[in-house]
Amino acid sequence: MSDWLKRLEALDPARLAGMRRGVEKESLRALPTAASLALTPHPTALGSALTHETVTTDFSESQLELITGVHASAEACVAQLTEIHQAVYRSLGEELMWASSMPCLLPADETIPIGRYGASNIGRAKSVYRMGLGHRYGRRMQTISGIHYNWSMPGLDNADHFALIRNFRRHSFLLLTLFGASPALCASFVAGREHGLQPLTDGTLHMPHGTSLRMGRLGYQSDAQASLAVSYNSLDGYAASLQDALTRPYPAYEKVGVVNPGGEYNQLSTTLLQIENEFYGTIRPKRTIRSGERPLHALRERGVEYIEVRCMDLDPFEPVGIAASTMRFLDIFLLHCWLTDSPNDTPDELGALARNQHRTASAGREPGLKLERRGGEIALRDWGRELLTDFAPIARKIDEALGGSLYREALAQAVERWDRPDELPSARVLAAMSAGHRCSHLDFVASRSEAARAHVLAQPMPEGLMARFEQSARASLETQAAIEAADTVDFETFRQQYLDPAQLRG
């Protein structure tokens, strides 16, 4: 028996039962008539985007982010996510929550509205940060949406978390292939840019074997961040890499400047990263922060609390964007990443992993596609099959700990999809577009968005849900007003204090 299987057999079932998960789900607000971006402000009925516990915005005022609590089961997590959708849909009027990771019809870049969070210093900082993202990467790129899966298990220390992260980065091609659902996009997203995509019909571009354009070269990528070789070999090394990026001036951003000639803020700083969240990655180590605390300080002082999986597309075939079975598969995947041997990464391997990600995103279903592994090449399909075979004892062990067979069923579904690539979400998206939507990305996603709305609103609504939601919205607005009233320094003083490198130390 291999060492990792021995570790699995020795794993206390109580630790498996102690796994916890939560979801952050981003969706653009879209107008159903033209499948175009809704340019209206964040609805007042949804409360304060600054302080509401379950509903906020991401980059844009038009981009909702729905946040669940922490749950002991995938079913409970999906149930809460569904309830949030039920309340939000009832507050949106005719607007839809766009069901695809790749955006709806977008206006000119400069007219995409940036998130607004009120007059407090922290609220202004959130908006200025987003203004900076717009200057650095363009606003269109920021309208891409996805699912973030937050996961923890008792008893993992910093070394365990970083070992898990290293293997996650090695094996994330499997998730992009199995769950990627963005092989096509509206041409408005790449207007005026070199893109390398193939036309499918007027207004729609695609990659025939693509899985997740969101995670490819057109997604969250930047030349500046490509210069970062962030190592995941230890918390100390990771923190040092981020601190360097957070404190090192970057010439192109120095040209933009912090304040424009009219006195308005362009960005929070001229460093390579304004704040920690600007660092794009498929996975992040996380620690709950205290009021006013920098995330890097929290990590250094109290260690990794949970990990955030960031490579999951919205599934347009699921009413709330993700299925409980997908969450269970992620649990299996993450346990395998932790249990199996995880050698330290190297600069050469980091480069290979970036190339693997781009190949998988743009051509993951291409027959014979090869990825780089340990200095050689291996067929993506063979490597994926190896991993899926390894997952079987993990699924069985979880089912034994929790009772039932749900984890083995989630794995069996994934294996079936792997063996029948036409069943993969990315293939289903292209087939559905062709069969019933004139090969139009906008037409297909608008239809799926309408269907998702109808499905969620048809579900029985828990008693008192809307009353509780309305109370939460009112309370969030009151909290925002209290924060604004409590400010004691001007914004520039606040900005300099918050960005002080001393705030990054543990």
What structural class is derived from the secondary structure elements? Answer: alpha+beta
Total strand segments: 13
Rounded mean pLDDT is 96
Shape: globular
Query: How large a portion of the residues is in β-strands, by DSSP E?
Result: 5-15%
What CATH architecture label applies? 2-Layer Sandwich
The figure for the number of domains is 1
* The CATH top-level class label: Alpha Beta
Question: Could you name the ranges where pLDDT drops below 50 across 5 or more consecutive residues?
Answer: none
Largest sheet: 8 strands, antiparallel
CATH topology-level fold name = Creatine Kinase, Chain A, domain 2
Describe what this molecule looks like in 3D.
- With 506 residues, this protein is α+β, with helices and mostly antiparallel strands.
- It is built from 19 helices and 13 strands.
- α3 (74-89) crosses α12 (324-339), α12 (324-339) crosses α14 and α12 (324-339) packs across α15.
- The two termini are 41 Å apart.
In terms of topology, how is this protein built?
Blueprint: H1 3-10, H2 13-17, E1 20-31, E2 36-37, E3 55-57, E4 63-67, H3 74-89, E5 96-97, H4 121-137, H5 139-142, E6 147-152, H6 158-171, H7 173-179, E7 184-186, E8 198-201, E9 204-206, H8 223-226, H9 235-247, H10 251-256, E10 283-286, H11 295-302, E11 306-312, H12 324-339, H13 347-363, E12 370-373, E13 376-379, H14 380-402, H15 406-419, H16 425-436, H17 441-458, H18 465-486, H19 491-499
Antiparallel strand pairs: 1-2, 1-4, 1-5, 1-6, 3-4, 6-11, 7-9, 8-9, 10-11, 12-13
